[in-house]
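Reopening this one. Same input as before:
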Amino acid sequence: MAIIRLHSRKTLSNERYPLETIECEYNTKDGRTVQKTVEVYQRPSACAILLYNPEQKTVVLSEQVRIATWCNGNPGGSVIEACAGLIDEGETPEEAVIREVEEELGYRIGEVEEIGKAYSSPGGNSELIYYFLGKYSPGQKVSAGGGAEGEEENITILEWSYQEAIGKLKSGEIQDAKTIILLQYAMLNEIISA
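Same output, byte for byte:
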């Protein structure tokens, strides 16, 4: 395992989260010392959940504008994705994902199942995403959802059959990595099927 030795750290921007230039070195497997200068966006950890209803055989996803995708060729900037959000200071990943489900999708759920965690883009982003599955029922709907007040998320809630969600995954219409991971996990573990 490489041990990183920090030489310097400089904040380039701190608009919302720190963007830093980090100069460091580490030893390679063959014993060489490598000097690196990298830019790292220091994002907090996040959570994502696939909300599903085994009786109705449906999932709840969302669609919202993500400016970064527009910058990289997505003409309208609109992305279909699983409910997700940042973990607030003092919150556990489980508490955060339950809060996000109510804010974004309007469901008050109880139990969730953590299925793993992964770095979203470890080449230049510190964000660690915790992945969850959660069951929902129509009786748990407590609000219209749409996002937290003041965040201007402009969320469209999508309730799709398993078949429709899997079809959109296979066709490439779903291009959000966390949503692909969650749907594929659910398919591989026979939680959902077409």
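So the earlier flakiness isn't reproducible anymore. For the record, Helices lie at 67-71, 93-105, 162-171, 177-188.
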